[in-house]
């Protein structure tokens, strides 16, 4: 008789394990292993749903077993790899059904869908956390008064303006706030009416605008740019004496003294006595100070007290002053040093932190005198293929970006097979000759494939890339025509998320005329895979800005019929 060790674990222990996993991960990993696990999973009453960058088959599986009244946290995303997700999801589950929802995250949701969600938040009496990652402004946020955590993350430099309406009574219970590039007026409004705030994370532009140091002097420039002076920032922070955690990302313009630790020391002692965690990253633009002078203000007992250990470092190449290890760089060129030892207050015995924090390494040269080793790199960018294998543990690498054309495709394939068993993402970011002279042995571990130069590469038209990358689920390519895209959709049978940039110029002689714009109906008619799919079970989005792009999110043929939803910025 077959047996499974999870059968011997009590329900309480399984539920303790599930607390560390998203519900979609639980379903994908444990559902239909046996009846016992199915019973535990389907009777688990707290669902944490994360649909960010999810594959379409797993999205459908999760929706098939979802009970809205059990959902505690929900993440929805309309990003390029999940186009139309919010419309599809809300057509099956109206947001008002999530009566026990405590936290919601919206990623690149368009304004109409966002307003539909915000309008119905009144029915969610337990909701305490809202996080939004918008592409554009949301003009009205119906935030519940019991909200304790509010996070806004813009991917681009877009300002959280005063036109975004937040009323006074919506801020009374707020304890955790994170905003990207907030305007002066909105920041003043929030600080004045959020007396319970204990954790603050903001990105601002800080300046003395031609000697500006008062509200009356600054008000004219505020209307055009959300620029905040030192006096204003200190006054704002004075409204929240309960603050225990402060994180600042600041662009310093003009003759600002924000970088001086003595000023911060006085202000923190007098106005923020409860502050225990202080992390900052200051971009010192057009500010010229002696490097040692800047650091000298952070070498006294206040900053180096054993109960604080607020260490800082200065990067003169990028004019950055930042706290470590929190803002220590995560990516670096191999030919560079993360930080020079005399430009940090970190004790010498902790210098290894600067190397251990690096997760992305660009290998651009050969250094024979290796005195350190990067231990936590999971993304490797190759500008030189003669890599020193004592530099990093190649078996840890999960993402490889090839940004060189001086070596053959065979060399890259052999490097992956010999040294990178955990690699799952491959980006070929150069005009390589993509012919393969050795017998084709599939790289089954590659699930994410980026080939932005595919359209310009010297490759055989009849070469079937899907024979090497059998298990690719996410694909990003630049192609020469709509028909080339259709061919790839059919060949990559396991692909769920795809983005195709359609090249409008003939580089290699294969196209002489501008390609006719593709439409959703054209995709159905010209692809065997999507034409035969039940109810055409896929969503898509078209973009026609600098280059025509098609984003696809594809389910399986054997999924139940679901109403197809798509959106487009181009109509033909």
Features:
572 residues; alpha/beta; 12-stranded mixed sheet; 10-stranded mixed sheet; 17 helices; globular; disordered C terminus; F-box domain-containing protein; LRR_dom_sf; F-box_dom
Task: Describe the 3D structure.
- This protein has 572 residues and is an alpha/beta fold.
- It has a domain of 100 residues.
- It is built from 17 helices and 22 strands.
- The strands form 2 sheets. Strands 1, 2, 3, 4, 5, 6, 7, 8, 9, 10, 11 and 12 form a 12-stranded mixed β-sheet that branches.
- The longest helix is centred in the middle third of the chain and has 11 residues.
- The N and C termini lie far apart (61 Å).
- The C terminus is likely disordered.
Number of helical elements: 17
Q: Helical amount among residues, as a percent range?
A: 10-25%
Shape: globular
Query: Average pLDDT across residues?
Result: 80
Q: Main sheet?
A: 12 strands, mixed
Q: In percent, how much strand structure appears in the residues? A: 15-25%
Judged by helices, strands and strand pairing, the structural class is alpha/beta
Terminal CA distance reads 61 Å
Tell me how many strands there are: 22
Low-confidence stretches at least 5 residues in length (pLDDT < 50)?
208-226, 506-513, 559-572
Q: Compute the gyration radius: what is it?
A: 27 Å
């Amino acid at each position: 008789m077959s047996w499974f060790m999870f059968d011997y674990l009590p329900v309480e222990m399984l539920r303790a394990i599930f607390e560390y996993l998203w519900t979609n991960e639980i379903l994908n990993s444990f559902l239909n292993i046996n009846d016992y696990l199915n019973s535990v999973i389907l009777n688990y009453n707290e669902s944490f749903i994360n649909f960010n960058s999810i594959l379409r088959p797993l999205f459908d599986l999760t929706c098939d077993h979802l009970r809205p009244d059990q959902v505690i946290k929900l993440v929805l995303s309309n990003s390029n790899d999940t186009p139309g997700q919010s419309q599809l999801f809300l057509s099956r589950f109206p947001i008002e059904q999530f009566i026990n929802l405590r936290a919601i995250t919206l990623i690149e949701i368009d304004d109409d869908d966002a307003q539909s969600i915000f309008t119905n938040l009144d029915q969610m009496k337990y909701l305490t956390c809202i996080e939004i990652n918008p592409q554009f402004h949301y003009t009205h946020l119906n935030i519940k008064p019991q909200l304790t955590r509010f996070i806004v993350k813009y991917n681009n430099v877009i300002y959280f303006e005063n036109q975004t309406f937040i009323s006074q009574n919506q801020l009374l219970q707020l304890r955790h706030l994170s905003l990207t590039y907030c305007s002066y007026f909105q920041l003043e409004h929030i600080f004045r009416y959020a007396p319970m705030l204990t954790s603050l994370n903001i990105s601002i532009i800080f300046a003395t605008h031609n000697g500006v140091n008062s509200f009356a002097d600054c008000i004219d420039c505020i209307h055009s740019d959300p620029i905040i002076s030192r006096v204003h920032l200190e006054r704002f922070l004075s409204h929240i004496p309960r603050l225990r955690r402060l994180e600042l990302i600041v662009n310093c313009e003009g003759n600002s003294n924000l970088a001086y630790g003595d000023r911060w020391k006085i202000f923190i002692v007098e106005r923020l006595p409860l502050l225990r965690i202080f992390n900052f990253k200051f971009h010192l633009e057009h500010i010229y100070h002696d490097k040692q002078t800047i650091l000298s203000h952070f070498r006294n007992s206040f900053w180096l007290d054993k109960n604080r250990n607020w260490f800082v470092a200065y990067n003169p190449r990028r004019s950055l002053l930042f706290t470590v290890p929190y803002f220590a760089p995560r990516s670096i060129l191999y030919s560079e040093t993360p930080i020079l030892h005399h430009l940090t207050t970190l004790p010498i015995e902790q210098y290894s932190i600067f190397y251990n924090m690096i997760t992305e390494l660009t290998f651009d040269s050969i250094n024979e005198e290796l005195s350190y080793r990067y231990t936590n790199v999971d993304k490797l960018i190759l500008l030189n293929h003669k890599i020193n294998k004592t530099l990093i543990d190649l078996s840890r690498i999960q993402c490889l970006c090839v940004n060189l054309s001086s070596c053959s495709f065979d060399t890259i394939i052999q490097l992956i097979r010999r040294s990178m068993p955990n690699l799952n993402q491959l980006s070929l970011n150069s005009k390589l000759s993509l012919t393969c002279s050795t017998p084709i042995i599939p790289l089954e571990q590659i699930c994410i494939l980026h080939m932005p130069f595919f359209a310009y590469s010297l490759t055989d038209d009849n070469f079937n890339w899907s024979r090497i990358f059998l298990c690719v689920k996410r694909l990003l390519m630049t192609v020469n025509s709509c028909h080339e895209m259709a061919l790839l959709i059919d060949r990559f049978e396991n692909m769920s998320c795809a983005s195709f940039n359609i090249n409008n110029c003939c580089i290699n002689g294969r196209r002489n005329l501008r390609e006719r714009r593709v439409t959703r109906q054209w995709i159905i008619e010209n692809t065997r895979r999507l034409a035969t799919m039940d109810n055409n079970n896929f969503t898509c989005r078209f973009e026609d800005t600098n280059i025509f792009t098609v984003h696809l999110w594809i389910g399986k043929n054997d999924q139940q019929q679901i109403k197809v939803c798509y959106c487009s910025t181009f109509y033909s």
